[in-house]
Write a structure and sequence with these properties.
The complex is a heterodimer of chains A (312) and B (238). By secondary structure, chain A is an alpha/beta fold. Chain A contains ten helices and ten strands. Chain B is 42% helix and 17% strand. Chain B has two domains: 39 residues, no CATH class; 196 residues, 3-Layer(aba) Sandwich (Rossmann fold). The chains are: A alpha/beta (312), B alpha/beta (238). Chain B: This is Translation initiation factor eIF2B subunit alpha.
Chain lengths: 312, 238
């Protein structure tokens, strides 16, 4: 059956992509789910799902290239099915890329429901989704004040501050270490995340875990803006930071020029894991969801076989 | 109990159009065999799904004797090195049997007193249990002492994992430990022997652990959070 060839091809490509790229969410899994559905019901026009990052165009081309490669390998009867499936698959991929573009816009539309007048909202570092969220609320003339944690050592908070102040939103930049001190004044926290795990936990920028713990202590709601492509069906197998984190260069902290003992170890983790108990609400393209409901969204977005690409 | 109910539903809710009695019989038998195969392979599938959670150097705490946990650990021992603490689990001391079987596979294991669970909890990486039943709320019914361990694990922030096959999912929603019916808690012979009031003097054999204390469930239908259990339950039973 030809769809199985296609699926195998997609799985191989996805595994290669996941291993190659350290950053980015588990996009290939849902791309696979989309194509999976298409392959199994090639005539019906089902509602598939979305998940992607900036490499979508590249991915599309890659899959197109692979599909054309596979043509000579299949038999005559097979190649007819591929031709038949091709336009449907292209339609789905187009739909997919549109969904990605629109998902952040849809999310931002909900800003007025969550940001109330004269509130003080805390955020961490730079997140495109959160920026759009704030800008939408400001464009609807909502008055609010934003505290931004700098997010050392990358200082992405500064970029966020510049962008938001251009939209005439009053901002205050705060050092990461002061998060506990200002938490008493804050009304709510709004953050983005790198990805959402199947148990409702987050892998987010480093510093988010301490933010979440401080919030729990002061009972401040922690809202997470997550467009649909950030939902992932994986679980974190262990809390061991070396296994489940990436460590960029420590150049920012201590430059290569400076002299220091070789016994000095500089650890710069990229991400933090935040357990689901600390998250109050996950704002997605549809509406707000509790972290315990994420499993349901994930089961709708992904097909069960795609949860583990390595095992085919 | 749930296993039987699921089996009955599975074989009878099959579709066929003819009324010939022999064919019906044949179909029932076939489906029964499919069900049997699926349940026999479920332990292996659980072991495969949960394999990534067992990393090198883990120290695992388990309770009493569970064949699911045994299969899981036996499979994982091919890929990772870890140690196991097993609680003795009075009154039948089945923990000692578990320890012997683990040692036979080659997994270093130590049998500890039930009372020393809190003492040991700080050393442990995570807790892994079997279950006698998984209830609709996502909680589990398991050998007495499970709830003790769950409370200690929560206090020390250790993950509490439960491994169970899907036929153990039962359509039942206890509100607390007192809510469990007597025929779960005591052996049939005990209930026959004593009357209502005197049962209070007996020690129950199982307890109920609410879903808030459970981190994840490893089942043959995949890795689930406790809140996902009722969804899966409905899918199984319709």
């Amino acid at each position: 059956m030809l769809p199985i060839h296609i699926l195998k091809l997609i799985r191989e490509v996805s595994v290669r992509i996941i291993h190659g790229r350290n950053e980015g969410s588990d996009i290939s899994l849902t791309l696979q789910a989309v194509l999976n559905d298409r392959a199994t019901m090639s005539t019906t026009n089902e509602d598939e799902n979305d998940n992607l990052d900036e490499n979508l165009q590249l991915k599309k081309q890659q899959i197109q290239a692979d599909l054309t490669e596979s043509l000579p390998m299949s038999n005559v009867e097979g190649s007819v099915s591929v031709q038949r499936l091709r336009p449907d698959i292209m339609d789905d991929l187009n739909w997919y890329s549109n969904e990605i573009d629109l998902s952040v816009k849809n999310l931002a539309q909900q800003a007025l429901a969550h940001i109330h007048a004269n509130e003080i909202i805390l955020t961490l570092g730079y997140s495109y989704t959160v920026e759009q969220f704030f800008k939408y609320a400001a464009s609807k003339k909502r008055q609010f004040h934003v505290f931004i944690l700098e997010h050392a050592p990358f200082f992405t908070g500064h970029k966020m501050a510049v962008n938001l102040s251009q939209a005439n939103i009053p901002v205050t930049v705060v050092t990461d270490s002061a998060v506990y001190a200002i938490m008493a004044r804050v009304n709510k926290i709004l953050i983005g995340t790198r990805s959402l795990l199947a148990n409702g936990g987050l892998t987010a920028k480093s510093g988010t875990y301490s933010l979440a713990l401080a919030a729990k202590n002061f009972n401040v709601p922690l809202l997470v803006c997550a467009p649909t492509y950030k939902f992932s069906p994986t679980y974190l197998p262990s809390f061991d930071p070396v296994m489940c984190n990436s460590f960029p260069s420590p150049e920012n902290i201590l430059s290569y020029q400076s002299s220091y003992q070789s016994s000095l170890d500089i650890v710069v983790p990229m991400h933090d894991y935040v357990p689901p108990e600390l998250v109050t609400l996950i704002i997605g393209s549809g509406m707000g969801n509790a972290p315990s409901y994420v499993y349901r969204i994930v089961s709708e977005l992904y097909s069960a076989e795609d949860n583990d690409l390595e095992r085919s | 109990k749930s296993g039987c109910e699921l089996f009955l539903r599975f074989i009878t809710l099959a579709k066929f159009d003819t009324f010939a009695i022999d064919e019906c019989r044949q179909k029932l038998i076939e489906r029964g065999q499919v069900f049997l195969e699926r349940t026999l392979s479920s332990r292996q599938r659980i072991a495969e799904y949960s394999q990534e959670f067992i990393v090198d150097g883990s120290i695992i705490l388990t309770h009493s004797h569970s064949r699911v946990v045994l299969t899981l650990l036996a499979y994982a021992s091919k890929f990772a090195r870890f140690r196991v603490f097993v609680t003795e689990s009075e009154p039948d001391k089945s923990g000692a049997k578990m320890r012997d079987e683990l040692e036979a596979i080659g997994i270093p294991s130590i049998c500890i007193l039930d009372a020393s669970v809190a003492y040991v909890m700080e050393k442990v990486t995570f807790v892994l249990m079997g279950a006698e039943a998984v209830v609709e709320s996502g909680g589990i019914i398991n050998k007495i002492g499970t709830f003790n361990i769950a409370i200690a694990a929560r206090e020390m922030n250790k993950p509490f994992y439960v491994a169970s096959e899907s036929f153990k999912f039962v359509r039942y929603y206890p509100l607390n430990n007192r809510d469990l019916p007597d025929h779960f808690k005591y052996k049939a012979s005990t209930i026959a022997r004593l009357s209502e009031q005197n049962l209070e003097m007996e020690h129950p054999l199982v307890d109920y652990t609410p879903p808030a204390y459970i981190t994840l469930l490893f089942t043959d239908i995949g890795t689930l959070t406790p809140s996902a259990v009722s969804d899966e339950l409905i899918k199984l039973y319709i």
